[in-house]
Amino acid sequence: MLTAHTIKVLQSLDKKKFRQKYNLFLVEGNKIISELFNSDFKIKEIFSTDPQKLERADAPVIHISENELKKISFLQNPKDSVAVCYLSEAVKYEDRNIQLVLDGIQDPGNLGTIIRLADWFGIEQIICSEDTVDFYNPKVIMASMGSFTRVNVIYTDLTGYLTGTENVNIGTDMEGENIYNFQKPEKMNLILGNEGNGMRAETEKHLKKSVMIPRFGKSRSTESLNVSMAAGIILGQLFSE
């Protein structure tokens, strides 16, 4: 049985300040939890309505009721298990040939989807501005569908990073070069801006080139694409070359 204190602590982990206070975050669902077993993330304990499905877990698996699961889950329809994991401080790798750089992304679903896209295309590292939504946000973890275990996400001062990187900084702009004609450089950073405001002026100063996704619809009434959707289209084209 879960104690009232444990429930209170786990419920608080939807907020960054409490994740940092307790050095913990949650991962929900057996499918995503199983991704942890082959990663560097350390599991403190797992609460499950069906412990037998988690026999591979190298951590205590505690049986709980469905009612208890509902109390600690952040999902409307809770899955079978919740893993309590320790935060892991990312270590910056050397710049990779293709990286994603995120300037103020705020929607956790977008960040999680972008992490999943990076994993799909073999991009090992994402560089984020310090105000980008927290990597350990439960909605980010869920949207990444386990890909968070394979993509290194770094938070840093973007101006300082973009000044020092040797990769070519590529932005997105409706006045940029058509992505279907774009010749990608050998080493590049694809920079994606905030959902509502786009890239900051200080970020734009460091761009070498910009690309755009042309519209083919006759009405031309759609003003923009969701940032994670745009990332998927651009990466698909870059990796098709």
Protein architecture, described:
The chain has 241 residues and is of the alpha/beta class. It contains nine helices and ten strands. The protein has helices spanning 4-12, 16-22, 30-36, 66-72, 108-120, 138-144, 158-164, 201-204, 227-238, and strands at 24-28, 43-48, 61-63, 81-86, 98-103, 125-129, 152-156, 168-178, 188-193, 209-212. The strands form two sheets. It has a six-stranded parallel sheet with strand order 7-6-5-9-8-10. The protein has a four-stranded mixed sheet with strand order 1-4-2-3. Helix 5 (108-120) packs parallel to helix 6 (138-144) and helix 5 (108-120) runs parallel beside helix 9. The mean pLDDT is 94.
Highlighted features:
241 residues, 30% helix
Question: For the residues shown, what is the average pLDDT?
Answer: 94
Which secondary-structure class do the elements indicate? alpha/beta
Report low-confidence residues grouped into runs of 5 or more: none
| Termini gap | 55 Å
- Our estimate of the beta-strand percent is 15-25%
Strand-helix topology:
Layout (H helix, E strand, L loop, with lengths): L3 H9 L3 H7 L1 E5 L1 H7 L6 E6 L12 E3 L2 H7 L8 E6 L11 E6 L4 H13 L4 E5 L8 H7 L7 E5 L1 H7 L3 E11 L9 E6 L7 H4 L4 E4 L14 H12 L3
What's a quick, concise take on this entry?
This protein has 241 residues and is α/β, with parallel strands linked by helices. It is built from nine helices and ten strands. The mean pLDDT is 94.
